[in-house]
């Protein structure tokens, strides 16, 4: 198991998510107008690579009334980080959960709230044993 002191330093933003009302329009803007490198589409989300940071654009009917941005911090051991932060009184929206099985790793997420209610994501890309 990973030492919590080794993983409890959120310093690397791995992904930023924004909410839009029209996914196709947004994809065209970010890909064709801004020239961002398209990665993949999954349901109501499209992903772009921006240097070391991935941009996720998600569609929502409430995007205009409730725009949102979520910062996703990369962690080494999502279970350990979740446990340590929960112990320190951090409010979580959910529990760590598997989101996607990628070719070489599994993507795990969990969401928490800061003191003002802003949602932050923690993500762990867990390599699978060969």
Characterization of the model:
The protein has helices at 4-7, 23-33, 78-87; strands at residues 13-20, 37-42, 45-50, 53-59, 69-74, 91-92, 97-101, 105-113, 119-127. The protein is α+β, with helices and mostly antiparallel strands and 130 residues long. It has one domain (12-127): 2,3-Dihydroxybiphenyl 1,2-Dioxygenase, domain 1, CATH 3.10.180.10. The model has no long low-confidence stretch (mean pLDDT 85).
Report Rg: 16 Å
Query: What quaternary form is this?
Result: single chain
Count of helix runs? 3
Number of domains: 1
Helix/strand order: HEHEEEEHEEEE
DSSP strand tally: 9
CATH architecture: Roll
Give the averaged pLDDT, no decimals. Answer: 85
Unreliable runs: none
Name some characteristics of this structure.
19% helix; alpha+beta; 130 residues; 9-stranded mixed sheet; 2,3-Dihydroxybiphenyl 1,2-Dioxygenase, domain 1
What's this entry about, in short?
With 130 residues, the protein is of the alpha+beta class.
